[in-house]
Design a protein that fits this description.
The protein has 366 residues and is α+β, with helices and mostly antiparallel strands. 26% of the residues lie in helices and 24% in strands. Helix 6 crosses helix 7. The longest helix has 15 residues.
Length: 366
């Protein structure tokens, strides 16, 4: 535990609502919790977190580092801001990142964790930096998370280390980076991280992309123009549910579908939040074959406001997603799923803990 630290190595700061700042000298509050990969330092007055939030964020740091092909060299400092505390972020928003960690008014803030991990390597050209945080970060609802739109080159050229990336370009940045990752793999983002920085222009970023993909920029643009437009919830990759081994649950025992039973409550290990009035738990299931699957769920205490979101572990606008009530639904939802892994987010209103059960029949067990 540390009494205080000073923000250090501050450069262009990036945010889920796009932040940037200069060297501020603002003191970091005492670190009151440390995991293997994350130190938590709340400002006085920061709201209380659910039991599973800090372990979840700690693990998220490692998952992002794995996705970037890097290692966690030192714990990421997570400063949880309060309404009355000072903020290092120059632009309004929920958070920003610096070389040693992140600042956020909510927890978790996975978008900022992505930036924080990438900050160890100096960040990348800002259009692609924000795009990567949009596809590997959180799915919280913000006004700027609308359907992807706007001219690609205009968006790339709009990024600068003086002004960051204007909010209006976040949907295009995330959508294009999702396309690059889906078509050419994470090597593109890794190369951009190592070979560009916040001051790099569009020309340098394009050179790196051409070198890694082996495709001329004009051909990449033509290829991308054929992609359908969609919003961030559709094109992002649900990193924790898809890559965290402990999230996986057995869907069947032999040829019989079984109930997956989870307790969703703030005092329950594994429950994350609160954020935006919600608490949740993320699990995962494997689907053995393409086909229709029936989702039956119930909760012990009122289902009002409870949601079950099912996301395919994939990138792009054709990713399978389904949202339904968490609780007995008529008619019982039937969803077409492709073979592969799916992340399931079980969400409850803040303060409304309950036991929940989900049974998914189909694909050889019913």
């Amino acid at each position: 535990m540390q009494s205080s630290l000073v923000w250090r190595s501050m450069i262009v700061l990036l945010g889920a609502a796009g932040c940037e700042a200069e060297e501020s000298g603002l003191e970091i509050p005492p670190i009151i919790w440390s995991g293997a990969q994350l130190d938590y330092a709340p400002q006085p007055g920061a709201y209380e977190l659910c039991e599973g939030t800090l372990p979840y964020m700690d693990r998220y740091v490692g998952l992002v580092a794995d996705a970037m092909g890097g290692e966690v060299e030192r714990p990421l400092i997570y400063v949880h801001g309060s309404e009355d505390g000072d903020s290092p972020c120059e632009r309004d928003g929920v958070g920003c990142a610096f070389r040693d960690g992140v600042y956020a008014k909510v927890a978790p803030q996975e978008h900022e964790i992505v930036h924080g991990v990438r900050g160890w390597y100096g960040f990348s050209q800002l259009f692609f930096e924000e795009g990567t945080a949009e596809i590997l970060g959180d799915d919280a609802r913000f006004e700027m998370r609308e359907t992807s739109n706007g001219d690609l080159m205009e968006g790339i050229e709009a990024a600068s280390d003086e002004t960051g990336l204007p909010f209006r370009w976040y949907p295009r940045a995330g959508h294009f980076v999702a396309h690059l990752h889906d078509r050419y793999g994470l090597e593109v983002t890794r190369a951009l991280l190592l070979e560009t920085d916040a001051s790099s222009g569009a020309e340098r970023a394009i050179e790196v992309i051409e070198d890694v993909t082996g495709v001329e920029w004009e051909d990449l643009v033509d290829e991308y123009a054929k992609e359908p437009e969609c919003d961030q919830a559709r094109f992002r990759y649900p990193l924790y549910g898809c890559e965290e081994p402990t999230a996986l649950r057995a869907r069947c025992e032999g040829d019989e579908a079984v109930f997956i039973r989870e307790r969703i409550a703030c005092d329950e290990p594994g429950t994350v939040g609160p954020r935006n009035g919600e608490i949740w738990k993320t699990i995962a299931v494997d689907v053995p074959e393409d086909g229709e699957y029936t989702f039956f769920s119930w909760v012990e205490e009122g289902a009002a406001g409870s949601r079950l979101v099912v996301e395919e572990c994939a990138l792009g606008c054709d990713k399978i997603m389904a949202e339904m009530s968490l609780g007995f639904d008529i008619p019982i939802p039937v969803v077409f799923l492709r073979k592969g892994r799916y992340a399931l987010r079980l969400t409850r209103p803040e303060g409304a803990g309950t036991d929940a059960s989900v049974r998914i029949s189909g694909g050889g067990c019913g």
